[in-house]
Amino acid sequence: MRKYVVVGIPGSGKSTQSTMLARDFDLVRISTGDIFRWHVRHHTKIGARVRRVMTAGQLVGDVLVETIMRDRLDEHDWNYGFVIDGFPRNRRQAEFFLESYDLDAVIYLDIPDSQVRHRVLSRRLCERCGVDYSLIESRPEQEDVCDVCADSLVTREDDTPEALTARLFDYHKDIDVVLELLGRKAGVFVIDASRDQGTVHAEILSRLGLPSPPSPGGSAGMAEQGR
Ligand code: AMP
């Protein structure tokens, strides 16, 4: 059983790296952002509650985040473990998580703010199947068309310069306390995430002492759907 949390600034590659790790080791990837986007896309009550907050780049309230995480982890479909992306984001969420769950490692994707703006503003998302593309590193074969389901690609509503500023502010405000708390339970592995995704993935495996997967992998950031 492997239990990992991936943390990092928006645009550091959390989604791509957690997806690659999940794929290679049969882990369940749990992304709070994907779960919320699923609710927005399907016009659920939760979606209606979080849409404006998300578009503005602000954080969803802790009570709702905790409920979503508890329900998701309670599904117990993670026979080989899980990799969490986008949670915990602050002290309260970290304490909530550590009260009930173990952790084997924290993967901290480190990248300067100056590099993320370009990355984030170059992201595209397939709303139907949740696959993430980067116009820098993992372009779709046909412009603005998903390679997997042929639906149109969109820009995330919160991938705007204004929302990114808000997200970076929240991130810097809370990252130290999150790392400090998680670090009490598990090793924190700081990975230079400014490099290409294959190199970053290889370093994560090596630092975590994980074997390389048999087949070459790790191309596009294949984000699973939130549910
Ligand atoms: P992400 O895909 O991780 O960048 O998350 C997208 C958005 O979903 C964030 O900007 C928040 O509005 C919301 N969100 C995701 N995870 C959390 C969390 N752990 N706590 C609060 N809000 C979250």
What does the secondary structure layout of this molecule look like, with pairings?
Blueprint: E1 2-8, H1 14-25, E2 28-31, H2 32-41, H3 45-55, H4 62-74, E3 81-85, H5 91-100, E4 105-110, H6 113-121, E5 123-126, E6 132-134, E7 153-154, H7 161-185, E8 187-192, H8 197-208
Parallel strand pairs: 1-3, 1-4, 2-3, 4-8
Antiparallel strand pairs: 5-6, 5-7
The structure holds adenosine monophosphate (AMP).
Residues 10, 32-33, 36, 53-54, 57-60, 65, 86-87, 89, 93, 158, 167 line the site of adenosine monophosphate.
Quick summary:
By secondary structure, the chain is α/β, with parallel strands linked by helices. The protein has eight helices and eight strands, in the order E-H-E-H-H-H-E-H-E-H-E-E-E-H-E-H.
Major pleated sheet: 5 strands, parallel
Q: What do we call the CATH homologous superfamily of the largest domain?
A: P-loop containing nucleotide triphosphate hydrolases
H-E order: EHEHHHEHEHEEEHEH
Structure summary, number of beta strands: 8
Query: Which term fits the overall shape?
Result: globular
Instruction: Provide the CATH top-level class of the largest domain.
Output: Alpha Beta
Please indicate the count of domains.
Answer: 2
What structural class should be given to the helix and strand makeup? alpha/beta
Strand order of the largest sheet: 2-3-1-4-8
**CATH fold annotation of the largest domain:** Rossmann fold
Low-confidence stretches: 217-227
Helix content: 40-55%
| CATH architectural designation of the largest domain | 3-Layer(aba) Sandwich
Count of helix runs: 8
Distance between the termini: 21 Å
Mean of all residue-level pLDDT scores: 90
Q: What small molecules are bound in this structure?
A: adenosine monophosphate
The proportion of residues in beta strands is 15-25%
Rg for CA atoms: 16 Å
